Fold:
Amino acid sequence: MTDYKNPNLILETAKVEPGEITWRSPANLAIVKYWGKHGVQMPKNPSLSLTLSSSFTETLLEYRPRETSESGISLEFFFHQESNEPFRERLLKYLESVADIFPFLRQLDLTIYSGNSFPHSAGIASSASAMSALALCLTSLEHELFETLDDDAAFDQKASYVARLGSGSACRSIFPKAALWGEMGEVKGSSDLFAVPMAEHVHAVFANMHDDILLASTSVKHISSRAGHGLMETHPFAEARYADAKRNLSRLIPALRSGDLEEFGRIAENEALTLHGLMMSSNPSYVLLKPNTLEMIERLRHYRQETKHPVYFSLDAGPNLHLLYPANIIHEVRGFIEDELKPLCEDESYLEDWAGDGPVQV
Ligand code: PMV
Structure:
């Protein structure tokens, strides 16, 4: 398998016109979670996510032939139109780490403008949308300058590989509806290095699934996902967890195919609570759930028992509750949200999202 390093991608800078590339890329919600990694952003277990739609990052990459001859990458960065030094430093480190894949980056002056449609760093997978949007810009830039990636599948695979190096979960955002990341015998072509598309293996009920995100709190998390993955290295339950994730995935894939909502929901909730259970039982331990998250879970389970509606929850690495349900019960579920869950949310707010068609070049 290629590592995509390519020393031949060098420009004749005198011939390069300044230009710009924009991608809008969505967040994703893992149903089977990636939690624990090794090597260079390789997952300890395979994971599967639904690609979202209204929670996205839009990134504009401007490039022009470099004016100075300094050695590092030249980058200016603006987040929501304001220069942001901590983000710029993170991105610079990332760009340096992919400079063997895209050596022409050192020959350009780069300016990146980025913005999210949702609050960042609050456990709404902002790194997945941000890093996938940037990876798509870089991959497009390669194609624009060298015409190397005419084949769509090859383009997506490279973008997914490059996104993974920025944030593991970002590699899954490249594909519409659903994606699998991590080698798994049952799925041909699956890999630890990039995600593969799963839309073809997903019943219509999931391809149009809603995911409303109830904002229990949008405060910036005090523990990053990076630290959380790190704590899995010494976690006493780690091996059992990786085996459990594989079992859950082996059950989820046939459920996605057949449209088995109940099995889907059981797995989604088990995975969400397992993720937070792992955080709570790490050393040091930490808790990202809030009292209102737990109250919402209780109300949801009560509502499900009373109405028999197939509404389930998931959680990302944060306190916000993702409500998953099929499109045909939207009116009933929105009524329940308005009456019972919204009052528990921070500023009574929630985001309406759903399984989407993947990134778009703008
Ligand atoms: O991609 P990272 O390193 O931010 O890890 C994200 C991990 C979870 O969002 C908690 C789970 C997942 O698979 O997306």
Summary: The first strand starts at residue 19 and ends at 32.
